[in-house]
Amino acid sequence: MILPEAVVLSSGLTAEFEEDRWVPGAIQLLIDGTPQSHLDLRNPSELFFEYVRRIGHVIDLFRPVGAPISALHLGGGAFTLPRYVEATRPGSRQQIVELEGALVDLVREAAPLPRRASIRVRRGDAREVLGKLPDGMRGAMDLVVVDIFAGDRTPAHVSSVEFYELIRPLLAPGGVVVVNVTDGAGQAFTRGQAATLASLFDTVAAIAEPQVLKGRRFGNVVLLATGGEADGTGGGAGGGAHDVDGAGGGFHDDLDWLPRLLASGPHPARMLVGRELADWLRGARAVSDADAAPSPAPPPEVFGRG
């Protein structure tokens, strides 16, 4: 397999592809040595990273099987999830927002998108692009995936209430926002992100390995948010999430797929929602532009750099 040469991004970081020695026909995108995306070129419906598989299960469950959806992906990587949506829900209409034009070109050279796919790539900062999207996208997105990293950290300006307020009006009824967050000891950043979402949306959930949620190990947490009207009515931090069994009152019937995420794997996994989420968020506050900060950098040993 011949892969394109590494490129230097505008941030000064280096992006490159390498073959996966263990999965024939698969490649991996590295940003300054940090694994960013994994692609099975022979079967794009196969997802490798655990957090991506969790997001894949959301995509599988939240709409009827195989039905096309409208999706917006903030953060492109190697376009792994857009390819997954196209493979599992043919006919879907998708848009990708990616800051690094050189990365977009690299990905397209290493792994061109299927010609039949309705996938548009918009180049630019996610927050700036959100403010310029056409009116026709308002109320039309079934899925918005937020997976934005500068190297191995999420920038501060895409972690605030003001940022998520730009996303909420885009959602179709029953639409879901999925956010990939990385954090470690104490989970302060992740809890702040969950509190931010809970201040805007009716239902919020956090899914990860139990040791990650407890802050004992650095890793990925997948946050889900849905509900909440564009006029500003939403849940207050922690208070808007409802119990899966309905005990919290107001849990939406069209989200009865949510508990099945745990059964879908990867295992082990835990989901916090309703009272458990509220307990986990105790002391956490929604993040505004005034106090936003980047996500913590992973310890060197996480990616074998120690």
The percent range for strand residues is 15-25%
Largest sheet, in brief, is: 8 strands, mixed
Kindly report the spatial arrangement of strands forming the biggest sheet.
Answer: 7-6-5-8-9-11-10-12
The class by helix and strand makeup works out as alpha/beta
Uncertain stretches of 5 or more adjacent residues = 230-234, 236-253
Q: Tell me the distance between the termini.
A: 30 Å
The CATH H-level homologous superfamily: Vaccinia Virus protein VP39
Any guess at the CATH architecture? 3-Layer(aba) Sandwich
Kindly report the average pLDDT value.
89
In which range does the helix fraction lie? Answer: 10-25%
Computed over alpha carbons, the radius of gyration is: 18 Å
Question: Could you give a short description of this structure?
Answer:
With 306 residues, the protein is α/β, with parallel strands linked by helices. It contains nine helices and twelve strands. The protein has helices at residues 50-61, 80-88, 101-110, 126-130, 161-167, 188-198, 210-213, 260-264, 275-280; strands at 7-8, 14-19, 26-31, 34-40, 70-74, 93-98, 118-123, 141-146, 171-183, 203-208, 219-226, 270-273.
